[in-house]
Amino acid sequence: MSVSTTISASTKRMAAAALVAALGVTTLAACGTEDVRDAAGKTGAPAPKTVTLVSHDSFSASKEVLAAFTKETGFTVKVLKAGDAGEAVNKEILTKGSPQGDVFFGVDNTLLSRALDNGIFVPYEAKGLDRVPATYRLDAENRVTPVDSGDICVNYDKKYFADKKLAPPQTFDDLAKPAYKDLLVVENPERSSPGLGFLLGTAAKYGDEGWQDYWKKLKANGVKTVDSWELAYNQEFSGSAGGKQAKGDRPLVVSYASSPPVEVLYGEPQPKVAPTGVSTGTCFRQIEFAGLLNGAKNPEGGKALIDFLISKKFQDDMPLQMFVNPVAKDAVLPEIFTKHGVVIDAPETMAPAKIAEKRDPWIQQWSSLVLK
Fold first, then answer.
1. Residues 281/32, Cβ–Cβ less than 8 Å
2. pTM higher than 0.90 for the full model?
3. Cβ contacts of 155 within 8 Å, gap of 6 or more
4. Within 13 Å and on the Cβ side, how many CA atoms surround 179?
């Protein structure tokens, strides 16, 4: 979900950021353990001692936690970073059946249908999955396992609004008001995960047709569009450490609910209060998943790794590594999250099947409305 560098590498994702999408069924949906072994080319030889995790560039875990996995299972984790979330998923689609690794982490609810439609995962019900609420478990066939969640939301520069004696916007409707003209920067949904999440949030809020009228209002109100979260947050946004250095002049940006704790953690000196806030009525819920890759050379190691990704040890470590929220019920958030973060009680959501149906035409319509 740096200041400039760490936020960029960590917070995105979520750059969170991560998203682009579509849903479906695969011919391997009924495969069992033996089928997975056959697909992986098993010949009865001992399982490899290395398990390869393919992920987007923002994956991070502490050395201590990865060492604990090795001690518990005997498997050493090799992490292969493959670009942003959309790029990484596309690479796995192109290498379907002969994957780069054993487990893929980082496919989210807006990318989920694309991955499932292309059959890049095989089913596996992770040990400990009963500790993950059903609201996060979007694939009934367990081809993917939920690992984390986060909320894509507008962030605001507290100092700017205090100096102007202007209340920061809190809702989608607020962003289109004249008081906030020329203040908002967003990311292109065709190129950016948070940009797509924000577009989906507006579609969930205003409906299949109403979102277009809403974006016409935003355009008339001076919304600025850039290609990536990094550009928006670390160059254009006046409230981030990177944006201050770059002399950014937009006090509103599409980012994450977890961005304020990051600004505190990496502030020099560390501030007592987060310099940025979250417009809680502008959020879209993002969920990230891990799955056992079709054709994995080490499916047993892959299963053990997926189990570990939802273990309490990994879930407790994850917030300060990737600035996302754990999904396991027994996970504990660090104090910096509870003190400086924001809990989004009612984010906008959308079923993966609908995202699959609407994503491409919506992006095309958005481009015609906003970029032309």
1. no
2. no
3. 233, 237, 239, 252, 253, 254, 255, 256, 259, 260, 276, 277, 278, 279
4. 11
